[in-house]
Write a structure and sequence with these properties.
The structure is a homodimer of 216-residue chains.
Chain A (H helix, E strand, L loop, with lengths): L4 E5 L3 H11 L4 E6 L2 H11 L3 E5 L6 H12 L4 E6 L4 H10 L3 E4 L4 H12 L4 E2 L1 H13 L11 H4 L3 H11 L4 H8 L3 H15 L4 H10 L4
Parallel strand pairs in A: 1-2, 1-3, 3-4, 4-5, 5-6
Helix pairs in contact in A: 2-3, 8-10, 8-11, 9-10
Chain A binds a DNA duplex (30 and 30 nucleotides) through α8 and α10.
DNA sequence: CACGCAGTAGGGGAGAACCCCGAGAAGAGC
DNA sequence: GCTCTTCTCGGGGTTCTCCCCTACTGCGTG
């Protein structure tokens, strides 16, 4: 294969410089961006093979780029690059469509290898991440807010949503009360509100409602 | 790294021979099995680093091996090997705990590379598979292998199964009684039997049990 | 025929669920 | 300051769940 055409998105100048020099001569760097909006425009314009994408950026982060470009240029593959190995971050970008996720402590050679693999269609994960990404998958994807707006869910207050999750899992009022360190009566109160707002009549319907929305 | 210790499970003699010669000198082959039960025993006994596991085998398939060994030897990593690239197969083994999945048309060198990567903790997928595995993840995989014979479900009488379905949908005893034209007390009676036989304690667990088996 | 099993049904009770009502504290907004 | 929402908590009551127990009927098997 020829050198893959790579686009680099990161808001840290230093990191871009480091990556640029590590990858010099190994891949074809077709552009860089240091913020979300510019990244989206340039990626769509240049259609690189692989986008090296920082996860944490002002203006929506890497997920925003993935969403925007994914529709316009589905052939562009994304390799998420992050200092974080937090499960939520990883899962969020994977769900948004990234084909790989590596942390920034990998070597230049490993990064190059990862880019070639992603360009070839492989999925690439750092060893430490592979485990829980697949675990999360095998357990069944936990939900991710990240954007989608649910008018019904939005009616609920934060506390009500917390209570809802326990109830939908089959916890009794008493269990939830212990879990949240409040009175069972308060739990009851929240559940009543939830049932009323969602126009449901009992906890079984609530369980179904929640599981349809993948809140469990 | 030293050569990883590899165990090979496949019911086709020809394929085992092929793999054996391809991997000779590259990895340390510590054993082989051609059927599920033997595979489970030998893997647990020998604790290899990586198990090369055929997906389609009589006696439960690779998933049965994954399940049985996963509990006893959680450190053993599995690389699923299959002629099939059907989404259901792939997803089933991933959910059962496999750390990788490659099809049998890969080269010996690629297979060796995949084994080393899995041994190191990486997740490995054939290019063609990486896409939809991650797609399934991002959409949220909700596939189940077809339920063949279910010993737990078999314990239940016809009537108990009828009642179970209503209860799992959130019907009250009274509702079910009306539906089946019997007394609520009889419904209660059946539910008690079901809970006892399945060793569950309440209707919520029953709902989960039923939905896992697609009885709704 | 005796026995076990599936299906039917009821009594009684402890605890959970769900409903009505009211009410105080804390914070956000006009 | 006043209001509105959220979160908190209680009393009191009805219904539902789940458990214990007993008991009758019909049906197939040894």
């Amino acid at each position: 294969m020829n050198q893959p055409r790579v686009f680099l998105v990161d808001d840290h100048e230093l990191i871009r410089t480091g990556i640029r020099s590590e990858l010099a001569g190994v891949v074809e760097l077709v552009g860089e961006a240091d913020e979300v909006a510019a990244a989206i425009d340039m990626i769509i314009e240049r259609s690189p093979d692989v986008v090296l994408l920082d996860v944490h950026m002002p203006g929506g982060g890497g997920v925003a780029v993935l969403r925007a470009v994914g529709d316009a240029r589905p052939s562009v593959r994304f390799l998420a690059l992050s200092v974080s190995d937090a499960a939520d971050d990883v899962i969020a970008v994977i769900r948004a469509g990234a084909r790989g996720y590596v942390t920034k402590n990998i070597s230049g050679a490993e990064l190059a290898d990862a880019i070639y693999r992603v360009a070839a269609g492989d999925a690439v994960f750092s060893p430490r991440l592979a485990g829980f990404v697949l675990d999360a998958f095998s357990l069944e994807g936990r939900h991710l807010e990240a954007g989608d707006v649910d008018p019904e869910l939005d009616q609920l207050t934060t506390r009500e949503r917390q209570v809802l999750r326990f109830i939908a899992r089959g916890y009794t009022y008493r269990d939830v009360a212990v879990e949240l360190a409040i009175s069972p009566k308060t739990v009851e109160s929240h559940v009543s509100s939830v049932l009323r707002k969602l126009q449901l009549t009992n906890r079984h319907q609530l369980s179904r409602w929640a599981s349809e929305r993948h809140l469990l």
